Each structure stands twice: as C-alpha cells, then as structure tokens.
Amino acid sequence: MRIGLPLALLATAGAAAWFSIREGHLQRLAYYAFPPRPSVEVLFAEAVPIPHRVPPGRIARSLGTPGDPAAETLLRPFITQLAPDDPLNIALHCRVKAGALAVQQWLVKESIGTMDFAVATPSGEVFHLTADGGRPHANSLPFFGSASFYFRLDEEELIDPTEPDGRRGAWRAEALPDFTRPGIYEVKVAGHVVLDGAANVPFESETIRIEVGQPELKPQASLFTVARQALRDRPIVQHALVARESTDGDRIFRFRGKLVGNRQPLFDVHVHPKGRVLKIVTTTRAFTGAARPYERADPWSRFWPANGD
Where are the domains of the chain? Predict the structure, then answer.
C-alpha cells in the first residue's frame, strides 16, 4: 500500500502532463508566462515582384494652408492593387491643425452623413457619392483632436469593414460606378468632423489611386486562409476583419493572442499577393494609456486608440 499509492499518484501526474503537452496547455502557459520579444520569422527572403502601375503604400496627405480652419487629413487604401472581387477599402484620418481642443465627442453617423466621396473610374467618369451614416450605435466617441474612419466602397452601399455589422447606408446618387471594372480608380473625400458641443471641423483630402481587377493576384479571402494556416500552432483568439499592405505590396493579416493582464501577443503575417507566406512578425502589445501619434495611425487604431505605438 505504501508503495502503490505513490506509484498511482505518479502515474496520474504523468498522464496529466502527457495530456497537457498533447493539447498544448503547457506550451500556452509558457508562452504567456514569458512573452516573446519582438521577432521576425523570415520564411522566404525574396519574392517575385508584382508589376505596379500604382505603387503600393502611398498616403495622400492634406496639410491645408496657415490659418485655414480645416483639418489635416491622411487618406490611404488598405490595399492598393486588388484582385478581381477584392473589396475596395480605404482609411481616412482627420486632425485639427491649430491648438489642442478640450475632449469633445465626435458623432460618427453625422460626420459620415456630411461626406462626399468623389470617385473617378477607369473610363474617366466622375461620381459623387454620399450616404446617411447608417445606424447610430456606438455613435459618439471621445475626440482628442483627431478622428479615424474606415470605409469599404461597395457597389450599393458604404460599409465600415472593421466592424462585423458596419453598414453605413446606401449610396445616395442618381448613378453609381461599377467598382468591379478593371483599371485605376481615383478617390478623394470631403466633409466635416461633426462634434457635440463644438464647431464642426471641415476637411478635404487629396486623391488616392487604387488598381482594381488584377487577374494575376490571389483574392484576399484565399490569402487569409494561407495566413491562418501559417499560425496553426499559435494560440490565436481573434483575427482582424481586413488586411492591409506593406510598402512592398505584401498583404498583412493581423492575428491576436489571448490578453493576459495588460499584455497581448500580436502576429502580423506577411503574404505575397500570389499566395506565399513571406514572414511572421511577432510583437507583444502593452496597454499604456498613451495617446497614439496621428502620423502613425493605421487601420487597427480604432481597436487600440490608447496605445502609443
């Protein structure tokens, strides 16, 4: 009996350890107990370049003139070169130029309702599109002198691609462009950031160019599957709803690990537009409460408005 009980306990502990190893529990515990330093796993150092009529990674920045009350803007495409059936997503960032404002509330629906989307198609036609801004859920957000908007220019309506239900209203226009027609589109946005309790801030962006319908590229939906497969052994709890691009034109898919305390691992998988995983960049995000610099705002800033990176 004295020997049998310890042996039984040892056998039970061994079985539990084996089960934990098999299921990955110990690996996950070690992963979160000792977060990795920022690292880059280069799987393929070089990739076959894609010929670009529109260079990737460009940002249209509008600074205005001295004394102008209008906001500075950054307008950028999430992806510049699109495969057939890829969504046309853009990000718009506005910042008040002069002085620091007291914290106000900016009204998302009302702000979007003022915006005019000027779209020039490959055939040279110019369309001016507006929408009502959609439902007012989560409509009022803190305004610290800057605001960010994310849009998908759909054939029939305006959509926020960073939200699961981001419908921002049907287009109000007599005629609509065909966003599936291959070629180069030019887009600019003008309107107001509508504030609650303060004067509205006008803005007008510069023009960005997006190339649509490149048949040699793989669609983003299939590239997402490739990126997720590359992280099949990582503890992923959430993935971004949209992809963005690097200055080389690679697609970047962000995946998030489990939040532990104020730290969360992030995995950015860089995928070549033809389908090869190039590298995996791993970082650990700490929530510090510092404001994000305007110039470094990116498509993830809505989810992480209080981070300094």
Answer: 30-48+217-296, 60-212
List the beta strands (DSSP E) in 121-250: 126-129, 140-143, 146-153, 157-159, 167-170, 183-193, 195-196, 201-204, 208-212, 236-239, 244-245
pLDDT of residue 262: 77
**Whether the Cβ atoms of residue 84 and residue 215 lie closer than 8 Å to each other:** yes
- Backbone conformation region of residue 5, classed left if phi is above 0, alpha if psi is from -120 to 50, else beta: alpha
pLDDT confidence tier of residue 24, bands split at 50, 70 and 90: very low
Return d(Cα 94, Cα 306) in angstroms, integer. 17
Residues 61-94 pLDDT 10s: 887 666 677 778 888 899 999 999 899 999 888 8
CA neighbor of 166 nearest in space, from 85, 112, 244, 219: 112
SS3 283: strand
The CA-to-CA distance between both ends of the chain, in Å, stands at: 61
Cβ pair 246, 81 in contact under 8 A: no
* Residue 35 and residue 265 in contact, taking contact as beta carbons nearer than 8 Å: yes
Q: List the beta bridge partners of residue 264.
A: 285
CA dihedral 262, 103, 59, 309 (to 10 degrees): -20
pLDDT score for 291: 47
Class of the domain covering 60-212: mainly beta
Six-digit token string for 65:
């003139």
Query: What gap in Å lies between CA 79 and CA 257, rounded to an integer?
Result: 24
Residue 134: name the closest of 159, 107, 154 by CA: 159
| Residue 295 reports pLDDT greater than 60 | no
Spatial separation of the C-alpha atoms in residues 247 and 267, rounded to whole Å = 18
- Convert the pLDDT of each residue in 26-73 to its tens digit: 444 544 455 555 566 666 555 555 555 787 877 788 876 666 777 788
Mean pLDDT of 213-239: 89
